[in-house]
Amino acid sequence: DTGLGEVAGNEGVYGLQRAFKIAGAKYLLMSLWSVPDEATQKLMDAFYANWLDKKMEIPAAFKAAQLAIKADYPSPYYWGGFVLLQ
C-alpha cells in the first residue's frame, strides 16, 4: 500500500511522490492496498519482462502485466490496486 499514507503537512503520499519526482523518476508504480506477495511478484515479473525484454513502453508494459495477472487472479483485489503515476 505504497500509494497510501497519512497526510500531515508535507508528509504522506504527496511528499513521497514529490521526493521521487525531484529525484528524477518519470513513473511511479504504487499500490493502493496491501496485495499478497505472490500476486505482486507475478505482476512485477510480468511488468519488467514486458518493459525490458519485450521493449514495451512503460504504460503498455504495466497494462499488459495487469491483464496477465487478471487471467490468473480474476478478482481486482490482486491486480486493481496497482497504479502507475506519470
Question: Could you explain the architecture of this structure?
Answer:
There is one protein chain. With 86 residues, the chain is mostly helical. It is built from four helices and two strands, in the order H-E-H-H-H-E. The chain has helices at 13-22, 37-53, 58-72, 76-79, and strands at 28-31, 82-85. It has a two-stranded antiparallel sheet. Helix 2 (37-53) crosses helix 3 (58-72). It is globular. The chain starts with 12 loop residues before the first helix and ends with a strand.
Short key terms for the protein model shown above:
mainly alpha; two-stranded antiparallel ribbon; 86 residues
Mean pLDDT: 88
The helix-strand sequence is: HEHHHE
Molecular shape:
globular
Determine the number of helices (DSSP H or I, runs of at least 4 residues).
4
Beta strand count? 2
- Share in β-strands: 5-15%
Short description:
By secondary structure, this protein is mostly helical. Helices cover 53% and strands 9% of the residues.
